[in-house]
Specification:
The protein is mainly α. It has ten helices and no strands. It is elongated, with a radius of gyration of 19 Å.
Amino acid sequence: MSSDDWYRNKDWNESIEDHFYSKLKRARTQRDQYLVIQALTLADKHPKVTLRLVNEYFESRIDQFDDVRALLAKANAYFALSDLERCIAAFKEVLGREREFPKHQTGVYLDYPYLVATRKIEHEYVNVIDVLDEHIGRLTFPLDYYKWHASKALINNDGSEAQKALDAAKVKRSGFRFHQDLGLVGKKHEKTIKHLCKTST
């Protein structure tokens, strides 16, 4: 890791933490951004550290510029901890901040419905359908279309939507000239795809 990546540590221990905070203490600008980037980077592997960094961000932040990403880090951490209730609550916070700051957008408008649909969290169904319909104009990549249609298919047991999701999953080139592999449906969705195959028939 280069000296410029001190806030992108993929692992965490006492030594790394000491180095991170020594650099953070000397950072005259962008302190909020460094905290959030580190929180996002650690969310999957060290979710409890991420939650601590997010709390620190909100306690000391200068402005609200990085709020959306900080809340996304919190949601990802709770997902890693299998705390779906708090994960969903954080997703909703992200969507609320995105409405306040439209230029700060994430993929939560898809991740939240897809989580609800694949985990069959029925009391969230009405809300996620509204979220999907509200943001349909943002769909860009094959993965976006897959998650959008898959969520609708699973919630409504809709064969037509399932087929549209499967069609998106088959796309092997993104259509972007220099990033042909960007935004494609990966292997981690195979289990859901198998279920969609049954729904589409």
